[in-house]
Design goal:
34% of the residues lie in helices and 16% in strands. It starts with 12 loop residues before the first strand and ends in a 15-residue tail after the last strand. By secondary structure, it is an alpha/beta fold. The chain folds into two domains: 185 residues, Rossmann fold, CATH 3.40.50; 107 residues, Rossmann fold (3-Layer(aba) Sandwich), CATH 3.40.50.1100. The strands form three sheets. Strands 3-4-12-9-10-11 form a six-stranded mixed sheet, sandwiched between helices. It has a four-stranded parallel sheet with strand order 7-6-5-8, with helices on both faces.
Amino acid sequence: MFYIRPAATYNLTVKGLRSDTLPTAELCKSVLDTIGNTPLVELARITRGLDGAVYAKLEYLNPGYSKKDRIALQMIDDAKSSGDLQPGDTVVELTSGNTGTGLAIVCAAKGYRFVAVMSRGNSMERARMMSALGAEVVLVDQAPGSAAGQVSGDDLALVEDRAQQIVRERGAFRADQFQLGGNARAHYRNTAPEIMRQSGGIDAFCDFVGSGGSFAGCARYFKECDANIKCYVVEPEGAAVLAGEAVSRANHKIQGGGYAMGDLPLIDRELIDGCLQVSDEDAMEMTRRLARDEGLFAGFSSGANLAAALQLLETKQRGGRIAILLPDSGLKYLSTDLWP
């Protein structure tokens, strides 16, 4: 027979500390309160022997496992404040899966219907997650000649056409991450200030470009803090249009960006101090090293950012402190060849 002591008589201690002396945290009112304030980790094992440091912002620890949770909340709040989004409205967006997941979470918490429009070339984990979160997921066939897992600008154009059609048919609000300023503003207001506070200062920032929002927002904030901070865009080899190169490999494997789109309205080119290119192989190997050497389970673009940061430590930023984002979780790529 077990006797359970009344709760009031317990004297809870942790390593000799009374419970009333332990740090306290506020109760979150909803999942939205858990977005942001992600940890910044120095990649000391991977950079051992190199002159300098890489600081990785663990964006995959947001509730939707990506940095896009931040922009989803900002875009929906902006639309609600402006009156563009009314109670009961439907929200639609083109997505590679991460923005869609963020919007599914935000719309569920705020009571909006959400339709995610995604290419079949993206990993299916993302579609399943969005569906589980209550989103309606519309999958669009890839362009002729495209390979699964390698989403090109042509594939994205087909997704854009379908998203526009659904917006017209349903009179929906388009949470357009490529156009709406809330994308960059979320990172300007939150991600970049967190990095500066956590790091105590950086010398450079590099970022794999999809919509361009995280680069635009972070780079602007960093430059306002210190004009000497260098900011670099990261693109796939063979699809480096921001670097002014012709596209030779539109169907690269680095999911979530590198769409070979020269027109990215959110990016002010005056913020770009240089362009870096990363191969599929290097992005994948660095993603695996993050897991194996640092215990950080992230996706393709995280490896691309790390590969670019290591390029900088060996060249232009030798001895510097370089900040990168780990944009999403490796859990979203278990069906791909990233994890053989």
